[in-house]
Amino acid sequence: MEKGGRCFEWERKGGGQLWFLRAARQRGVRQFLGFLNSPPVGMTRNGKAYAAVAGESNIDTSRYNDLAAYMVDVVKRVKKVEVSTWTT
To answer: Is 1 in contact with 7 (CB distance < 8 Å)?
Structure first.
């Protein structure tokens, strides 16, 4: 969920990543590594996908639970639709 309870728009906002997953799978890739560079900007302290101060976390501490739920949702949805194996 994004700020305000809105759901992630998979094809519009994640289209490039989903295309890449599909293309990799079609070319024989069977394991995928998932990682997070930044929370959605609505869950950051400064409203941007980068930290204002080098070495400091940009996650809004009041949004930890929202970010965890978002990440679980992303993994479940991508796994259901696109990949069968995640490497963590």
So the answer is: yes
